[in-house]
Amino acid sequence: MPTDCRTLFRTAFLLIAIVGVVKSAYSQSNDAAIVDQFFPESLISESDTDFNNGGLPPVRHTSFVAADLNGTGQADFLVAAYTNGSSAVVRVLRRQGTSATLVAEPALPLMGGIIPEVSLVDLDGDSRPEIVVHYSAATGGYSAWIFKWTGTALTVFGPTEMDDGDVTTVLHDVGFRDVTGDGIPEILNPPEHKASDLTTTVYQLVGGAYTQISTKIYESRSFIRRTATPQTETITFDLVDPTMSYVMLIRNGDDAGADRASSVQITLNGNEVAGTSQFNQQVQVFRLPITVSDSNTLSVRFAGQPQSQIWLAIVTE
What we know:
By secondary structure, this protein is mainly beta. The protein folds into two domains: 26-173, Lipocalin (Beta Barrel); 220-316, Sandwich (Jelly Rolls). Helix content is 15%, strand content 43%. The chain contains two helices and 21 strands. The strands form five sheets. A seven-stranded antiparallel β-sheet has the order 11-12-13-14-21-16-19, with no helix packed on it. Strands 1-2-3-4 form a four-stranded antiparallel β-sheet, covered by helices on one side. Strands 5-6-7-8 form a four-stranded antiparallel β-sheet, with no helix packed on it. The radius of gyration is 24 Å and the shape is globular. Mean pLDDT is 89; it is low at 11-26.
């Protein structure tokens, strides 16, 4: 191909890329403007009243995601979380050109926090996302709420409890991991504050509702085979009661089941507890009984395919 033609093609591809970036930036900017237009008046009024009574100056915090809630293939909705630094509201907005209409707002008077963060996770395997909203707290921790879209309303989907007649979440800075091997991620709920004697509780989806199961996680970590020469990665952890019966829970691959490892050596306190014979592309989740001490050293060494990974947890069941 002549040099002039190659230059022309490169210029055309560059222009296409620039146009795509500009369109994406414009769309995000327009979405942010729409979300701001729907900042709840109740939160504004509450913070203004508090300020007039000697409280802190009013603030507005928002977070949102564009979401395909109805499975149409189009992100027709904006799911937005709002706070005034104390109280919080979640709203579902349906896009209409350059504007939107408010279509859902669950009434949750005990929901609150400082900075919101909205994300999407498919938690029940129906190929439609659930909505996860984290709120930072003044104490340094987090609260988390999980919602499900019914087609017309946003309902609380995650574990909750009643507090003086109102619903409140029991979740903190949650994560999601399939620890049972059934293909559906469980909710991993860490303690609100870090402490060596506190554990991460696990909730499993059973019959459309979450139930806390007996598994308790004392330590967990992801390990990834990098592209450089294989290295041994070592961590240490403490256990308050080493006389309990502990199990090493290993999930092979990422959350989608990809990038599974086939050559891994795991040692605990100098003793090999898992080797290549336990790992292959068909193995997803397995458990190994282990002996622990007050203070423990865990080492993981990968060989094989770069980017292969495992998630490992020290648990009681």
